Amino acid sequence: MKKDNSPKKEFLFGKRNYAIMLIGIAVIALGFILMAGGGSDDPNVFNPEIYGWRRIRLAPTLVIIGLGIEIYAIFANPKKVSMNILEAIILGIIQGLTEFLPVSSSGHLELAKALFGDTSVPQESLMFTVVLHAATALSTIVVFRKEIAEILRGLLQFQWNEEMQFSLKIILSMIPAVVIGLAFEKELENFFGGKVLLVGCMLLVTAALLLLADKAKNTNKSVSFKNALIIGISQAIAMLPGISRSGATISTSVLLGVDRTKAARFSFLMVVPLILGKVAKDMLSGDINFQSSEIVPLSAGFFAAFISGLLACTWMISLVKKSKLSYFSVYCAIVGLIAIGYSLFF
Question: Which of 191, 193, 189 lies closest to 117 in space, CA to CA?
Answer without folding.
Answer: 193
